[in-house]
Design brief:
By secondary structure, this protein is an alpha/beta fold. Helices cover 48% and strands 19% of the residues. It has one domain (7-276). It has eleven helices and nine strands.
Length: 289
């Protein structure tokens, strides 16, 4: 757990008070912040527009602008929804997320089988993990500790309120060995940017893209089944989350097959609702050498 400092409480208090507001008020704040960030401060607009244009070269500039504006709403809605996690009750997640495919996860739990859950930075991945924790499975989330010690502490606190277990990425192998008898969903958010060498290069959203090999390496090391999770917003503050079996026996797959499978699954998800993905991230900053 990140080290606690007494002054963290003082810094966190305004966020906790903000989280007590009803969602309709918080979404009003989100709209106001979106207007400022988009029109006044132009936060990462160049990156967002470049990513959208390169990913959808057949779309018009009007479509690109519309999707960028929708993306900024999603970005700040997810931000405000994440802050809301500081004060909600367990029942909140069942009300706001509908889950499909839980029978797959229940079957794995019945066999006392840990599995790998892979998803991307699309829709509200934080809420999706909390909903799964409440309904069907212990959720272990791999994460990179944040550079801000206070923010790292805050995120750790709101993620673990109802039992989600964070695992630092640099300690993931040791943690998975220690917890191998727990039928948990070991969760990877697998669309971050790796180095240009320790990765697999493939076409993703019409671009030459490096992809992390962590999911494939650990799945094969433990021969854990892989489940893909995808979330879609049905209306503000409400989501449909779907789980489906991506690969039952990783050890029987060819090299890079798993990596391509989960990356292509994410690509299909993004194409269905493009505004829900994290377009402000510099996903294509590396070039193949």
């Amino acid at each position: 757990m990140p080290n606690f400092r007494w002054y963290y409480i003082i810094i966190t208090a305004p966020l906790f008070l903000l989280s007590l507001l009803p969602l309709w008020v918080l979404f009003g704040i989100s709209d106001f912040v979106r207007f400022l960030i988009y029109h006044v401060f132009a936060y990462r607009k160049k990156v967002v527009f470049e990513n959208l244009r390169n990913s959808f070269p057949d779309k018009s500039e009007e479509w690109i602008e519309k999707m960028a504006w929708a993306f900024y709403r999603n970005l700040f809605d997810v931000t405000i929804e994440t802050i809301k996690m500081a004060s909600v009750q367990k029942s909140f997640y069942n009300k706001h997320l509908k889950q499909e495919g839980l029978d797959i996860i229940h079957a794995l739990n019945k066999k006392n089988q840990p599995f790998i859950l892979v998803c991307g930075h699309a829709a509200n991945w934080e809420w999706a993990g909390q909903a799964l924790q409440q309904n069907s499975s212990q959720v272990d989330v791999l994460y990179h500790p944040l550079s801000s010690k206070w923010f790292d502490w805050f995120m750790y606190h709101i993620r673990t309120r109802f039992g989600v277990y964070p695992m630092a990425m640099n300690n993931s192998l040791r943690e998975m060995i220690a917890r191998k008898n727990i039928p948990s969903a070991i969760t990877f958010i697998a669309d971050q940017t790796p180095s240009s060498t320790n990765c697999h290069w493939m076409n993703f959203l019409n671009q030459d893209t490096p992809v992390f090999l962590g999911v494939e390496k650990l799945a094969k090391r433990f021969n854990y089944p892989i489940v893909f999770g995808e979330a879609y917003r049905t209306k503000r503050g409400y989501y449909d989350v779907k789980f489906w079996m991506l690969c039952e026996e990783p050890n029987k797959t060819a090299e890079f097959e798993i990596t391509e499978m989960h990356t292509k699954a994410l690509e299909k998800q993004i194409i269905k609702q493009p505004d829900l993905w994290l377009w402000s991230h510099r996903r294509w900053k590396h070039k193949r050498t």
